[in-house]
TrEMBL record, chain A:
Classification lineage: Eukaryota, Fungi, Dikarya, Ascomycota, Pezizomycotina
InterPro entries referenced in this protein's UniProt entry, alphabetically: MDM35_apoptosis (IPR007918)
Organism from which the protein derives: Lentithecium fluviatile CBS 122367
GO biological process: phospholipid translocation
RNA-binding listed as a keyword: no
Single GO MF descriptor: phosphatidic acid transfer activity
Keyword flag Chaperone: no
A single cellular component GO annotation: mitochondrial intermembrane space
Name the UniProt record assigns to this protein: Uncharacterized protein
Family matches, as Pfam families: UPF0203
Signal peptide (residue range): none
Family: Belongs to the TRIAP1/MDM35 family.
TrEMBL record, chain B:
Source species: Lentithecium fluviatile CBS 122367
Name of this chain's protein: PRELI/MSF1 domain-containing protein
Domain of life: Eukaryota
InterPro entries: PRELI/MSF1_dom (IPR006797), Slowmo/Ups (IPR037365)
Pfam families, sorted: PRELI
Cellular component, GO, one term: mitochondrial intermembrane space
Lineage of the species this protein comes from: Eukaryota, Fungi, Dikarya, Ascomycota, Pezizomycotina
Record domain PRELI/MSF1: where: 2-191
Length: 81, 280
């Protein structure tokens, strides 16, 4: 599995990634997924990661980029599909 | 000023396998510059069967020396040596019902100097042979349309069936330099009363060059890098897909583990003479 940018999150990331891959290949790709079964593990991973992002000052940069993205999406991608 | 690159390609692998490989493409022997990959948000819409994922990649990057020569040290700051790390934000949507995956990656830093937006759209081809014909050619007709991956019990045994399915991919890269534009705004702000200490130096530098020719030069350098790195990105995907075909998910994960160890140990995963570039 790929590494997390925060080494302290590697363990919980690995648990989430393993769950996701199983769900993705066995349920999602077959079109039989009813819900995201790995969400509880994602919440744990997210908790660890958000601390790491904050301490590295990446959280504000991310927020700006995602806000920009949303604007761009609204502007350019609306008529898509 | 904007530069645009676009290409199309066909993977000789079924669509579901390609989407899985996309999520598992780092690390691979062609991506030793990718240091980490984190999922920062994921949303599954049960009604549309769409999965939206946002990931953050950290890559080791090197500012091309040509760019370093163009920019004064005051702008380069800590990256003046050329070595730095950069964050890439990747958004993807997979629609398994309609058979497409739409992905977009963009750099988070240096966007003023050069913003690079890479878009890849993967599509399950529309069958040229009607489904009814396929049914007569064998009972695996449905599997040919939907199966592609053989789910034998647990997910670890997931294998890709080589059934001749292909996936179409359209890639595009948009390069846009805004360099000088924020300083124009700052100059306006300065005229209105506020001041900026660094301004005289930057403005002098820009006047000597001309904002537009500087933007053009930077976009051109970005395009050169893009053209050089695109084949590596493709090869990386193919390595992951090949592993999936050979030994399923187990082989992909084992390959990733080995690549990760090699990257940590600083070993070059590729043979001598086939050097990879430090960007994608």
């Amino acid at each position: 599995m790929s590494a997390s940018l925060a080494p302290e999150c590697n363990e919980v990331k690995e648990r989430y990634d393993t769950c996701f891959l199983k769900w993705y290949s066995e349920k999602f790709l077959r079109g039989t997924a009813k819900s995201d079964e790995c969400d509880p593990l994602f919440k744990q991973y997210e908790q660890c990661l958000s601390k790491a992002l904050k301490s590295r000052g990446i959280d504000t940069m991310l927020k700006e980029a995602r806000d920009d993205n949303r604007e761009n999406d609204a502007e350019h991608m609306r008529p898509k599909r | 000023m904007v530069k645009f690159y676009s290409s199309t390609d066909t993977y000789s692998y079924p669509f579901p396998a390609v989407t899985l490989a996309y999520f598992l493409r780092y690390p691979n022997p062609y991506s030793t510059h990718v240091l980490s990959t984190d999922t920062i948000s994921r949303h599954f819409d049960a009604e549309t069967q769409r999965l939206t994922t946002i990931r953050l990649h950290l890559k080791r990057s090197k500012l091309p020396s040509a760019v370093q020569k163009l920019l004064p040290r005051s702008i380069l700051g800590s990256s003046a040596s050329g070595e730095s790390q950069s964050y890439i934000l990747e958004k993807s949507v997979v629609d398994i019902k309609e058979g497409w995956m739409d992905t977009e990656s963009r750099n988070l830093e240096w966007t003023g100097v050069l913003s690079v937006v890479e878009r890849q759209v993967f599509k399950r081809p529309i069958p040229t042979v009607p489904d009814e014909v396929k049914i007569f050619t064998g009972m695996e007709g449905a599997a040919r349309r939907h199966g592609f991956i053989n789910f034998s019990g647990n997910g670890a045994g997931t294998k890709v069936e080589d059934n001749g399915e292909t996936t179409e991919v359209t890639s595009s890269v948009t390069l846009h330099s805004h360099i000088g534009e924020t300083w124009k705004k700052k100059r306006q702000a300065a005229a209105e009363g506020s001041s900026d200490e660094e301004q005289p130096h930057k403005m002098g530098f820009l006047r000597s060059w001309g904002t537009h020719s500087l933007q053009r030069s930077i976009e051109k350098i970005g395009m050169t890098r893009t053209l050089r790195s695109q084949p590596n990105a493709r090869e990386g995907m193919k390595v992951v897909l090949e592993r999936m075909r050979e030994g399923g998910l187990v082989a992909v994960l084992e390959g990733m583990r080995k690549d990760r160890e090699a990257i940590l140990a600083g070993r070059n995963l590729l043979k001598e003479g086939s050097r990879h570039t430090d960007d994608e």
